[in-house]
Amino acid sequence: MSYIIGSDVVRYACTCGILKPISKLYFCRHCLEVRCGFCVCHEVDSHFCGKCAENLPSSEARLKKNRCGNCYDCPSCHQQLTTRAATVGPKNPEDPKATPRKVFYLLCLLCRWSSRDVGIPDQSAVSGGWPERENIHANRLQEIQDMYKGIVLLDKQQKLEKDKKKQRRYMSFTDRTGITASMLRKRVGLPDIPHPLLKPKPKEPEPAVAKEDVEELPEELLTKPVNLCEVTTMEQRLVQPEWQPITVEKLFPIHKQLSVKRSQRCRSCEHNVSKPEYNPNSIKFKIQLFACFHIPEVRIVTVEPLRAGKTCELLLKFSNPTQHQTVITFLPVTLEMEETKISEQVTEDKSVVDDYLLEKKQPLSLTGTGSQPSSLLHASLSRQPSITVKPRPIAVPVVADITIPTSTFILPPRDDAAEYDDSGDTHNIQDDSKLVIWRKSNKAVVKLQVTPKEDLKIGDEVVAGFTMQHIYVNTITTVDNKEPQKCEHKVKVFVTLGNLVGSE
Amino acid sequence: MTSRNTIKIHHGSIVCEESKLRGDITIGSNCIIHPSAAIIAEAGPIIIGDCCLIEEQAKIIHRLPFDQSDKENTPVLIIGSHNVFEVDCTVEACKIGDNNIFESKCYVGNKLTITNGCIIGAGCRLTEEQTLKDNTIVYGRSCQMREGLDRPVPQTLQMDTLSKMLPNYHHLRKPNKKNQ
């Protein structure tokens, strides 16, 4: 499956200019644009542990340093550790009734590191209660943290007092009505209860002291051969920054890092394009505007051997993933004219909006209510983008020309039951027989002519591109627009056809 | 080549008939050899110890490095006891001790000597000339090595199950040697 979906032989141009296979693109239904992982806002929805699937609120996750309290990773190879059970003899072997005890230890199934390797005692409970290690610098780090918290609070306080001095002339409404304890204290003339962390001056921890006498370089480092099985690797040290063990006896299990579920939001209209369900056990989505559900998918069927300057046949298969019929038109791809075209489009849009405004204004002025037309505009489907994302030019060397066919073709809606229907295709679509050569349910194979450029060398990769225009039926309903809207959506498609072979 | 096959199987071993055994091979007692395992004694005899488990598609090949092939005396590949050769591993090591595990799809070249209690992780490729010390564990994509605390536990449970299951579904080679 991955060689069909995962490969990037057919790439679509995202609005931001990056080329990606359709499986990695989103389609915002509100601004009708293709979005990719680089041009959407990523938001963290929830933290969870990938092993025990425990959901943690973000504050707790921060408190635990984004680590799970119960699950551990191997300090040697950073894979998950599993709990293993072993039976040991009863505590008092003389007692004949005593049953053998079960004890548990941690084992890595990849590198076979176990908690017994470093002498961690076996636990009698499955969930462990494994000994936690105290960082020797914990106190110092806490002191420094407290100091900076104090500084931040002091800063805030000073700012507040500055503002207060300016406003003290008048009694504010809040003073009269909503009286809080702190306000009452102020009015009576008592000093405010200070914030527990707020001190006149944050206490500075002892400054670090420079030391002149450092440990001598042990001579055995130079004289004895190093046993690589005893020293830790760089990764092993850096994954535990608090301890940075030098030898393997000091490797202790690491709390497993939490994973996040994130939702993606379109940057221009602030609608979600992907939102997972909160439950860590669920792999479903609440919102999934993936491009492969909305934009026709293109696959390469075959291509004739590519020769420089020679025209050859290219068969592409189109499939319609939507529940609505669509019409596909080929347009030439333009790379250089990108900037001007967009500005043109913007002005065009503006004029459309102006017309719309005029239209709205006239009947309103007739009735004489004098309401704001702008608010009506906002209710319409085309929400004003909050951020305009400037598209970048597409950087791909297109080295082959596709002869753009003049005729269009229809793709029927997708029908999941069609697969089990043996009655055969009963569509009666008038096709241009030169263009469409095969058709079945929502799929069609079209024949195109492609000509690699003259100046290509043998073995060069041939990339061709075209703009696919398809009719997209938008099913989002708004207050004043109940009917699904049809619109033409264009997307640039680039196909990597393979390498050039010898030109006989 | 097939005419020179001399296969000695000690009592208690389960050797499936479909397994590919070539050359002079001696198999100790209580071994289990799966149907499509291959043991090829090309350069000289192979002697396998007791309680070895050789799984499907595992290949044990006795082949000499090119620079030693013209020596007069034929070397013998001695494999100790309690070794596990997992699915689709290729082992050409010139000496193997006891209690080793060769995990799935690993490759051990013919310049290596394996001592006791070693684990060659899944997919690891070892080709350089070296001797693996006792309880060495090789794992991961870049074949990192570490020293284990103890020998791996023998797979007795798995062996028991197999020795009950395999005779029900496969033709076996008859043990042709009595234990001394």
TrEMBL record, chain A:
Query: A Pfam family this protein belongs to?
Result: Dynactin_p62
Mind telling me which GO cellular component terms the entry cites?
cell cortex; centrosome; dynactin complex; myofibril; stress fiber
For whether the record's keyword set contains DNA repair, the answer is no
Entries under InterPro entries matching the protein = DCTN4
- Compartments where found: Cytoplasm, Cell cortex; Cytoplasm, Cytoskeleton, Microtubule organizing center, Centrosome; Cytoplasm, Cytoskeleton, Stress fiber; Cytoplasm, Myofibril
Keyword hit for Plastid:
no
Write out the entry's keywords from A to Z: Acetylation, Coiled coil, Cytoplasm, Cytoskeleton, Isopeptide bond, Phosphoprotein, Ubl conjugation
**Quaternary arrangement and interactors, per the entry?**
Subunit of dynactin, a multiprotein complex part of a tripartite complex with dynein and a adapter, such as BICDL1, BICD2 or HOOK3. The dynactin complex is built around ACTR1A/ACTB filament and consists of an actin-related filament composed of a shoulder domain, a pointed end and a barbed end. Its length is defined by its flexible shoulder domain. The soulder is composed of 2 DCTN1 subunits, 4 DCTN2 and 2 DCTN3. The 4 DCNT2 (via N-terminus) bind the ACTR1A filament and act as molecular rulers to determine the length. The pointed end is important for binding dynein-dynactin cargo adapters.
User: Which family is it part of?
Assistant: Belongs to the dynactin subunit 4 family.
PANTHER family for this protein: DYNACTIN P62 SUBUNIT (PTHR13034), DYNACTIN SUBUNIT 4 (PTHR13034:SF2)
Protein name, entry field: Dynactin subunit 4
| Natural source organism | Ignelater luminosus
TrEMBL record, chain B:
Coiled-coil spans are none
Q: Which GO terms describe its molecular function?
A: dynein complex binding
Q: Where in the cell is it found?
A: Cytoplasm, Cytoskeleton
Cite the entry's keywords alphabetically: Cytoplasm, Cytoskeleton
Any one cellular-component term (Gene Ontology): dynactin complex
Protein function = Part of the dynactin complex that activates the molecular motor dynein for ultra-processive transport along microtubules.
UniProt lists the family membership as follows: Belongs to the dynactin subunits 5/6 family. Dynactin subunit 6 subfamily.
| Protein name according to UniProt | Dynactin subunit 6
Species this chain originates from:
Ignelater luminosus (Cucubano)
